[in-house]
């Protein structure tokens, strides 16, 4: 709850900065604010307070909020140039902070109203940010598609909520759970329809196949820093919300949806990884890889046992840290190649192909080293964090008896190794005459933090796994 | 018996489902951005109708409070949506979504 109050006040302060002209102070202020929020947020551990039956700040919420705050801190280190370049600097700060407020609501709701509001607070901020490069048609297209698909998904989510309300007479998660338990066998059929509609809506939000088709377009068109935000923080929050609903409230009606999630998981894993292999643009490849990673997390959701929560927490942490690292390096590399080649219709062509990483191992050993670690982690190679993330997910799924799906997931992650290693090979074994890329100080700090975090989580995974 | 309850609940359910389906089909098949926004509004308003009907039949005010939230959020969403559409229009001079086909491989 402290996180919610602090983040939203910080957002309001960001808006005031425009009026009282202390714009230059905003960046350090936000970094300081995030650190303060993180520390105060930890003091909510084990308190388990319920606020007006709308939000419960239990350990699940504290853990996911902390992860989101850490990633947000890393993200701000990455994106200083994004804020400096824009004339609407304070608006962008405010939108990002309000989006973070939305994520805090999404990880702590106990009422459908709060789920809806959290998703919308996050999404509406993201629609604007995706289109923040106003003169770039790709950015416009990305914002437009994101908005249409987001609103479409919200429609399904709301129809589901309405049907569940009609069947149970309540929006409260606990009351709905009690209703299901006390009406075993004669729950009205519209309740099941509602559950399935909510499943569709949330699958759109976490970009699980077959509802993933907007993801690559939106991720590719949006400015790279915003893509990094969508691929990490938005995905973490959406999964936390998804899991919070389906692992508790709907756990007793799991017969309705397990088969559907089974098929969705298999499709997400295969479509995500195979499409990623076929991409020439690195950014689009990372977008498909983020679809594929949603598949692994769905596997834990499907397992629905006592390991699921901690497995998803660990997976989102490992995946987000790795992604922030890769997107940061992608941003540095594409920007250093001068103005990326633009065709007449204003769309980036080249500039972010795998070739732009050629010879990075010689010219910029630090960038290449961190990129290698981040990609190894995303591919799930020991001893990085990504390996244990996949290990815990597979264990959870295996214990719930989904051996076949685990097999599909292992095959999928082998395909994943191929496209991640393509970049590593380009960095170390291909020649390039490019000059040394200049790396800003805060990017260097970010990259070192990312590398240390990935290795540390790979060596001491218990640190996070024991939390939930 | 309130005015809403003159019509049986199932009819409301059917009407909402039909309106929602029309909205979904509109989003999927219409090519004009403004009409797509209208279809999304139709989807959300079908939900509002359903919530009000349920709320009345359950004699419970929570559903109607939720409708206010949906209205507020839908207004915000359309405000952002029209701003994005203006931005697209300035760059392309068209509100047909077929011009938005630059992102693919």
Write down the domain tally of chain A. 1
CATH architecture annotation of chain B: Orthogonal Bundle
| Assembly state (oligomeric) | heterodimer
Q: How many whole angstroms does the radius of gyration of chain A measure?
A: 21 Å
Give the largest chain-chain interface (CB within 8 Å).
A-B, 48 and 43 residues
Total helix count of chain B? 3
Write a structural description.
- The complex is a heterodimer of chains A (468) and B (105).
- Chain A has helices spanning 2-19, 23-42, 59-78, 80-85, 89-108, 112-130, 137-168, 173-182, 189-206, 214-221, 224-248, 258-278, 282-303, 308-336, 360-363, 365-379, 385-399, 403-429, 441-459, 462-465, and strands at 49-51, 55-57.
- Chain A is built from 20 helices and 2 strands.
- Chain A is mainly α and 468 residues long.
- Chain A has one domain (2-465).
- Chain A starts with a helix and ends with a helix.
- In chain B, helix 1 (9-29) runs antiparallel to helix 2 and helix 2 (33-57) runs antiparallel to helix 3 (62-92).
- The relative contact order of chain B is 0.13.
- Chain B has a single domain, classed as Helix Hairpins (Orthogonal Bundle).
- Helices cover 73% and strands 0% of the residues of chain B.
- At the A-B interface, helix 6, helix 7 and helix 10 of A face helix 1, helix 2 and helix 3 of B.
What's the short story on this structure?
Chain A has 468 residues and is mainly alpha-helical.
Any descriptors?
heterodimer, A: 468 residues, two-stranded antiparallel sheet, 75% helix, B: 105 residues, mainly alpha, Helix Hairpins, 73% helix, elongated
List the helices and strands and how they pair.
The complex is a heterodimer of chains A (468) and B (105).
Chain A: H1 2-19, H2 23-42, E1 49-51, E2 55-57, H3 59-78, H4 80-85, H5 89-108, H6 112-130, H7 137-168, H8 173-182, H9 189-206, H10 214-221, H11 224-248, H12 258-278, H13 282-303, H14 308-336, H15 360-363, H16 365-379, H17 385-399, H18 403-429, H19 441-459, H20 462-465
Antiparallel strand pairs in A: 1-2
Helix pairs in contact in A: 1-2, 1-5, 2-3, 3-5, 3-11, 3-14, 5-6, 5-11, 6-7, 6-11, 7-9, 7-10, 9-11, 10-11, 10-13, 11-13, 11-14, 12-13, 12-18, 13-14, 13-17, 13-18, 14-16, 14-17, 14-19, 16-18, 16-19, 17-18, 17-19
Chain B: H1 9-29, H2 33-57, H3 62-92
